[in-house]
Amino acid sequence: MNSIRFLRPPPFHSPPPPVFPIFPKPLIRNGHHNQPIFCSKTQTSTSTYSPSSLHDDPQGPLFLRPLIHTSTLTDLQTFIRRAKSVVSSTGSTFVQLDNGPDSSLLLRELRWLLQDSVDDPSLIPHLDNITENGSSLVGVPRPRPREIIRLRASLEQLYELWKQRIEERRPFQYIVGCEHWRDLVLRVEEGVLIPRPESEKIVELVRDVVSVSEMLRQGLWGDLGTGSGALAIGIARTLGVNGRVVATDLSPTAIAVARFNVERYGLQDVVEIVQGSWFDPLLHLEGELVGLVSNPPYIPSEDISGLQAEVREHEPRLALDGGVEGMDCLLRLCEKAATMLKPGGFFVFETNGGKQCKSLVNYLENQMATSFRDVNIVPDFADIPRFLTGFRN
Fold first, then answer.
1. To the nearest whole percent, how much of the chain has pLDDT over 90?
2. H or E element in which residue 379 lies
3. Residue 348: strand pairing partners
């Protein structure tokens, strides 16, 4: 539960098949940030972000920032040596403390940070010892030491970010400002839960049911506790032409980030982001939703202190802590789903694992037997019981 695995596909290639996680929510995966995606269709949005601002936000995702800084190759190599010296001082300390990242992983993160920062990522293999084996690309000329390199952040800014990664255990996703999830590249920042790879299965489960049901494909879906908007965006891209998603979150920070991500993928007319606690902003839609999804807080309160520092100290506790048994939010979701879903509506909720899944099945079958049918436990990619699914009677 308190382990994080960091993975990242090769730079600027199409996303690879998912790597199957074996841990619950505290797991984090790093994916490289593909080229920006902008829709050619102009759309109107109530988002706080306008399309012209996507590249202009100095605190936004690093790979989207303008190339307004410069450095010589020599100075960049000096930065790398300083950054590596910070890494070498950690050794296996983080692994021993809480199964955190080791020095080899941190060096890979340093390379990813550079790839997001420079104008030409092909330069990275030529920098001193930055590749695992120290080799250079055959047939590619080495840059000259005094050659000017354009950057998205100054070397001083990059070094400060790197110190935060090491000294404060700030998650790498918050350092670079985004996370790779399925075929998406999503903005994330402090106050917003970093999307986990196991949650990708929720989109696949929705895709399966909408493929055989016109009502589910063309209806209105709810994403509760949307965070970065990952589920809402992933589901919106699987629906029919009339399908829509309304996503809620209590956090103003999450609302702003989710709207940014929705706009970046041109889905403003398909996904509506509204602020409020769970179903509160959706009460006027009672009985009208064809589907509900949620990755709610489900970690038992007493387990929070045992998580990795990246999770425990930096990610929002509101998105992690599920109460004494981790079930508080899950029970509320199940209870309210009975009135929010229309007959035949589908739900899928993520849980902490088999024990929670079994408890919820028992609750639905004994306390709410007339409300739902075909309630099932679905494993994640690592075959761990993870998701609760069912249909409204």
1. 75
2. strand 372-379
3. 293, 389
